[in-house]
UniProtKB/TrEMBL annotation:
One of its GO terms (biological process) is tricarboxylic acid cycle. The lineage of its organism: Eukaryota, Viridiplantae, Streptophyta, Embryophyta, Tracheophyta. It comes from Trifolium medium. InterPro entries: Isocitrate_DH_NADP. Signal peptide: none annotated. Transmembrane segments: none annotated. It comes from the Eukaryota. Keywords: Magnesium, Manganese, Metal-binding, Oxidoreductase, Tricarboxylic acid cycle. This is Isocitrate dehydrogenase.
Length: 40
């Protein structure tokens, strides 16, 4: 049970974290402003 539960919870968490992370970086205005400031 432990292995099955961990595997089932880890896979969706990783995909969700990657999806939300990429979306938040590109969509959020704070992310774009930070990238611009870092670029300057």
């Amino acid at each position: 049970y432990n292995v099955a539960v961990k595997c089932a919870t880890i896979t969706p968490d990783e995909t969700r974290v990657k999806e939300f992370g990429l979306k938040s970086m590109w969509r959020s205005p704070n992310g774009t402003i930070r990238n611009i400031l870092n670029g300057l």
